[in-house]
Amino acid sequence: MTPRRLSMRARIVIGTFVVLLAAAALVVGLSLRGEDPITGGAAAEPAATPQQLSRGEYLARAGNCAGCHTDRGGAPYAGGRGIATPFGTVYASNLTPDAETGIGRWSTAQFWRAMHNGRSRDGRLLYPAFPYPSFTLLTRDDSDALLAYLRSQAPVRQPNRPHALRFPYSTQAALAVWRALFFAPARFELQPQQSAAWNRGAYLVRALGHCDACHAARNLLGATRAPLELSGGLVAMQGWYAPSLADAGEAGVAGWPLDDVVQLLRSGTSSRGTVMGPMAEVVARSTQHLAEADLRAMALYLQSLPHRMPDAPPVQRATPEQRELGERLYAQQCARCHGKSGEGRGPYAALAGARTVTMGPHTNLVRVIVSGGFPPTTAGNPRPYGMPSLALDDDEIAAIATYVRSAWGNRAPAVTRADVAALR
User: Fold this and answer.
1) Range 47-182 has CATH code 1.10.3470
2) I need a labelling partner for 3 at 20 to 30 A (CA). Which of 19, 192, 274, 338 fits?
3) Domain boundaries of the chain, sorted by first residue
4) Confidence band for 24, pLDDT divided at 50, 70 and 90
């Protein structure tokens, strides 16, 4: 090998190394954008006022913080609940004021950095299963009040459980690249052409309520696509579909009376629909506890989302044998509550024209038949009537789902055995 060829190879190696260093520096720089320097500490901060504690408690309800940070049977806010993602499981952290395993040593500036920038007290990048892409819009005052409330909780010594993510998603380097591509800190901007109520609703839906965490579609790397459209997405943790809030054929409420939207958020049921699955938990833990003015503000904002008409009815794919089986099973298993013609009876929902039945994704209908579905228990609906699971095989469940999606004027594609098996 000649010295000239060696020199050329050396230059290529050095050049490649320099390019990689520059790319790494760019990624790190983008992952740090918008961060303020951290000064002071928790010990030097003034005690919270009663008003701040009360406000923080309300904000924790609005953000449903306990929903993720309280494990089943565990202490409130002590973490440990697993959040399933396509990349593995993320475990929620301990938010109690324990000094060793919780947030007892966090300052308001460090907590604000976590909410606004998605970075932990020790400098680690946080995974967006913690919805900082939405929480980045919180005001600093709300962040401080929320921390004050969490500090007032009973400390629980419970170490955080390590995440169970596949390589390379388990690395900080991969997370830095994801943030460089898909995240930038932001602030909520008031829209002067809109009313104060609309702006308050937008803040609650987009920031505290982080509705886009479920109701926005995601790309292959888990980033939300057009999050402000709330166009629907799969809730990976529980296998339900969060329907589009802008599509009249799914969960759009633009054509509803405002009071009906408020009623649904407050009690989980209204004359136009009932919530089940993950949304039932949101109503039970969060929205039923919100002030009337805030519920009306959220309803107003949701009604203003860009309206999308449902797609044209698809061609039916049910075979005569499947439809016959579905009709027979419906008469045996379902008609007593839902009526012979799907008209509903008393507290039991009508299936004729029901959006959960007819919308394109069949996920929620099959999920209810397979696993049952129950509205939340709320002050406005203290004794909700639920749907028990049906002890049927995959062919039978597919037949019932297909039948109700094509009977009484409903027009939606058939459900196959494979569809049901995938949701078991």
Assistant:
1) no
2) 19
3) 47-182, 196-303, 320-423
4) very low
